[in-house]
Amino acid sequence: MSDINLKESETRATFVENSQPKIGGDSTNVIRSALKKRNVMNMDISSTIVSSPLLSSTPSTISKSLVKIYPYLILADSFLGLVTWTNENIWGSILITLAYIMGILYFQNITKYFGHVVVVGLLWGYSLLHQNIEDIMSSQPTLDDIVLMMDKVTRKFDMFLSPITILSAQDIRRLLSTTIFLSPIYVVISLFIFPPRTLLLVGGVYILTYQSPWSKVTRRILWKFKAVRLFVFYLTGLDLGGINKNQGIIAAVHKQVRKLSSPTQTDVSQPGAMPNKTIRFTYVLYENQRRWIGIGWTSSMLSYERTPWTDEFLNQAPSPEDFTLPEESSDLTWKWVDKSWRLDLTNDGAIQLPSSKQRTTASPGADEGFIYYDNTWKKPSTSDSFSKYTRRRRWIRTAELIKIDTEANEDNEENSIEVNIQSIKDNEESKSAEQKDNDTGSLKRNRSVTILEEPIILGNDVTEENNNSTTVEVTETSETRKDNLRHRGDREEDDEEGIEGEQEEALGFKPSKNRSGSEPSGKDKKEI
Amino acid sequence: MSTASLDSSNAKYRAKFIHNHGQKPSLTMITPSSLIGSLYRLYPLLIITDCALSNLMWICDDLCLPFVYLVTFTLAVNILEPMDSIGDGSLWRQWNFNQVKEYAVNTWFGLTSVMFLFFSFIYYVQSVYHDISHTEQPTLDDIIVVLESVLDKLETVRKEVLMHGLQINGWLSLIKTILIMTPIQLILMKYISVKLYTILSVLVLGLYHSTWFQATFKLFWRILLVRKFYYYFYYIFNKNCISKFPILDLFDLIKHEDLIISLPFTKTLKGLEDNRLKLFIQKLYPQDSSFKGLTKDWQNKNSIKILDVKIQENQRKWHPDGWTSKLVSYERSPYSIEINNKIYSALAPSDMGKLIPEGWQWLDNEWHCTVWSYSNTDWEFTGLNESLEGCTRSKIWSRRLFHL
Name one GO biological process term (chain A) (predicted). Predict the structure, then answer.
């Protein structure tokens, strides 16, 4: 017992001696131990970095470059945040816009008196930026931070470029040619009305504020005016939606189908028989070309005229490679009957062919089957001459609408009819089916500028519902049921959007539902 | 039979050969999928940045492109030209056909250039997105290669911009720089127009990172006169950086409070005489021990003052002679001492010991020196071994004095 006590006291005594700081006497030991402790503490700090599971499974080459790119990602994030107005504080974006306006308006004076200040300031800012980068590098970010930041930057970048990425290469070429074509007008405008600097100012402010909420609302309101739409159409040469939307080739087909499938429109003597028939359509595309002096025939058209590919009503249509069959609701699907698009060598009966020759071909020559027109698409003739500047030819391909459900398959063979949406003149083919000739006639008369509620290009929420509300007419019970189904589908999509928005919020975004919905639906619409 | 076996052996051999070709296994298999996804989504941004940087540095495949961009940029400056005559209508009051024609041509060029730049950007972005989605998907290795190329370029740009201490440290030097440049700016603006000034700055900006510009820059930098001129201005902004005169000796050093460390004068030391005391202190504080954190704790009368003299010996590598202590006139002296981040000239260690202030004694018997540490031309540490960029080196001589 006493032994144990003794031992305890001994150990405790030595312990106390070591840790108690004594000034004088054995101060060296004290100092040394203090120094040692300090070292140990430093080492502790550096060795207690928790390694993330991501780090251990990532190859070191990747993680090294990722660590290096991290500060730049942060910079890109804050910059894109400013441009896309998604930073938590939008005053930065407002300030940048104001600075831009000031810079353009007072460019002369600023350069004259403060040019050097700007240069030195930029250099200084740049060096500050790199000090900042080094600080971030030394702050030891985890790989998870980096991945999170990467996603954030990508989202903002995609958002920033969303108005560009929905354009196709052809659109941009058209835009460029239109702008160059109109540039003398711009020069005249700048001579008489306002200097080009104002153009630069307006353009720059438009780009900078493109994603701001006010700008979105303003665009949406302005887009409701038909004049604005037409103005934009003539300015850019692009059909940005809303000009000819509801009269494209597929819309026409939709109408046909609906008319045929709804019992009210069809023959009353055969109730219920029509939906079971196989419906055939001949899709018709016109290829338009214009001759440019020095270049020859190309598919680049002027901005105000028809597009390179149109349907017979001169509405914009996709080229044969991009042409996809429309998706019907629920139990109907489209299927091609012809293997490929075939050129109509008679060009809708306009060109006389010897009876021995085939009327269509799948692989025509570059100049085959054209009808030539003058500069304004008048005076058609079958031969090319100096006064002819435009030409067009006709491609056709037949498809059929099939019912998927089993009941319909039993008796669809016998009742198949051929439907042909044709142009103005009747030819032999269309005469064979008398009934739909009336339909095509009514279709033609239906051509009018219809206006959708929402534009595509503006990046607003173009929801499917609007689409439906314009295209779907209320008919009999079966149709309405389908509509209900469709709307339910939309609602589900909305829910998904909501979830996405929440995720974005978690990532530090402002919840902007507009964006998440706009791009894909915009694409969808474009295909139509 | 025999051919078949030959074939199979061939196949084996080839398989092995390819496997051991010195290539690492593909990164795709060993990287977490979440990371791959993020990197893939980042790919367009990386490509666009890479392209922009290579245009800026004039190292893209087609050198015509940056040239065209530069020309269009200079033409675009036309737009910013003031047309006061339009604003107040004087252009129409005194109709001058030549003036109008010139103005119209300028405007047309300016507008078309701006449009061209804008559309080429849009077209490029569009084609990048189109290619990524329509052609073969990039492998992870592709993405990493682009990522590294972007990093490389950013680093090069940084080095070229912030070369030779071009950076401005703090508000004071910023204001100084602006003040010095103001008269230059005012004189310049008297002789050239704003338009020319803008065009010149656009040209410098566009050409700065090109190889030709940088090569010319480096050639000029080799001329000693240029460097002297540069450093003359440099020291105006960074006064407390290097002081060549006076050359410090021990008498100057003991005046610097920052160098002197006070240690407790403990009881055990009290009865000791000169030589034994010295030995005892040596034993307590070996030469390589650090005094950090001790200076302020025992500042009373009963203290030992210790002066740790650390003299840097500096050398520079000259092409025919190798390492000599001959240095360029604008930089530090062959022997220097650093006090509060400011570098003073100092006596050589051999001369230091000749005169010792009264009351002070050498604590160490001799000068202790470290190995050479190599640094680049701006005396930034590069390593302990000689390397290509290490054209200066220095080592530290240290010896301590004490005073009771």
Answer: peroxisome organization
